[in-house]
Amino acid sequence: MATAKIEPRVTPSYWKAAVGELKEQDRILGKLISDYGGEMLCSQGDAFTTLTRAIVGQQISVKAAASVWYKLTLQLTEISPHIVFSADTDLLRTCGLSARKASYIKDLSAHFLMGIYDEAQWQSMDDESLIKLLIQFRGIGRWTAEMFLIFYMLRPNVLPLDDIGLQRAISIHYNQNQTIDKQSIQKIAEEWQPWRSVATWYLWRSLDPIPVAY
């Protein structure tokens, strides 16, 4: 068993410019930015870690995902393709992973070991092209791919419409706590371009005491 590691953290170079523009464009976001102005999105700086953590976080709360991830970091010597691929499935499940998610991250680790990850190629692709590539892998849907774009690629203009947290935050802050459809969310988010990832992060932050991280 290993002790939990402190992972490297990378912050977006565009954050200050994005925050300044969003505060001018959107009064509600301006207040949220003021409330959480000392914080920002952080990347863990590793593609495999980010994708694995996004799979762990599928369809569960931020708090639950953080708990499962912490247990994984304690049980595995490191979060790497080789270590995850070699890990016993029962061990992964004791950390709180479902059998399906355990199979997803082991399948992902196998693909990384086969060399599917090409940093230069992925960096050169636009958002939609990269999403189309990622969703070819088992266990990765559009939401997971979008988390990867936001938290590893640090793409500034991603709007994860299927994200329940984003939907809930927009409902609270923009629609008097009433359900809101995706078309309406898209319309509200037009004012956030080209910084929709940043706006999304602050809306997430308004809901959870733990900043979202993948």
Describe this structure in words.
Helices cover 58% and strands 0% of the residues. With 214 residues, the chain is an all-alpha fold. The N terminus is likely disordered.
Give a quick precis of the structure.
The protein has helices at 15-25, 27-35, 47-56, 62-75, 81-86, 89-94, 99-113, 119-124, 127-134, 142-151, 164-174, 182-189, 196-205.
Present the secondary structure layout.
Layout (H helix, E strand, L loop, with lengths): L14 H11 L1 H9 L11 H10 L5 H14 L5 H6 L2 H6 L4 H15 L5 H6 L2 H8 L7 H10 L12 H11 L7 H8 L6 H10 L9
Features:
single chain, 214 residues, mainly alpha, 13 helices, 0% strand
Work out the helicity level. 55-70%
CA gyration radius, whole angstroms: 17 Å
Mean pLDDT: 92
Shape: globular
Largest sheet: none
Q: List the helices and strands in order.
A: HHHHHHHHHHHHH
Number of strands: 0
Low-confidence stretches: 1-7
The end-to-end distance, rounded to whole angstroms, is: 22 Å
The tally of helices reads 13
Structural class, judged by helices and strands? mainly alpha
Percent of residues in β-strands: under 5%
